[in-house]
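Sample intake sheet
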Amino acid sequence: MRDDEEVRGRLLSEGERRPAAGAAAWILAFSARWQAALIVHCLCHYATIELVRDHQEDYLSLTWD
């Protein structure tokens, strides 16, 4: 989020924060689930699974109300 705000040159508004947080959570969950499904076929690179595992507390602590 901070990177996005830096590029935009302004902070996200309250109305922009909640959808951005939801989109980020959805993308991470979808990608991790898809990669987990590919493990059975030996096609998984584990990148998103490791990212979520390594930073799970950070992601769970985000509220962006």
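Comment: The CA atoms of residues 16 and 46 lie 30 Å apart. DSSP finds four helices and no strands in the chain.
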